Amino acid sequence: MKSIRRTFIKGLIAIIPLIFTLYLLFWFAGTLEMALGYIFKFIFPDSWYIRGFGVALAIPLVFFFGCFLESRSFRKVFNTFETQVIQIPFIKSIYTTMRDFTSLFSHENKGKFKQVVLVNAPPGNSQQIGFITVSDFEDTSHTFITDDQIAVYIPFSYQVGGQTVIISREHVIGIDMSVEDALRFIATAGIAGSANNT
């Protein structure tokens, strides 16, 4: 009986992430199809529409939007629009949370994570994994930061968010770990190992 239960649990543990991932993918595709399908029908006759055109439209739309963001003038317009959006109380919380979360996986922000470190968290001997984001404050006007301090971002496990701490260099230890492995380790509370071990 124990063997059957162990086998069932093993299968359950393996299949839940798969089902959840597929569910999110289908939900995202369905949302894109519903939203962009209306745009397709608005531009072209209804008889031209075939289910799936909404998702197909999303690919060039995202690509061209990325191209537009390369333009300084369009980027300025987008930043102005974004500034207006984050002034709306409820929308601000949702938008900024999603923006900050997705930006963690961009190559630009990974470049801003200068080093994966262990941060000594008093009291006691506990340590937290974080990322050095600013190692030199010489060009800033923050008078409360001393020369021997750095900025370290510490993400939270199993949720969106984190905290930025200004801490003395002596309380930070650099470790030989990639940003991707560190993000995976933190996001799963240490359960997931490196990409090579999973």
TrEMBL record:
Q: State the source organism's domain of life.
A: Bacteria
Query: What's the short name of a Pfam family annotated to this entry?
Result: DUF502
Q: Does the keyword Lyase apply?
A: no
- Transmembrane parts of this sequence: 7-28, 48-69
Per UniProt, the keywords (alphabetical) are: Membrane, Transmembrane, Transmembrane helix
Q: What is this protein called?
A: DUF502 domain-containing protein
Cite the source lineage: Bacteria, Pseudomonadati, Pseudomonadota, Gammaproteobacteria, Methylococcales
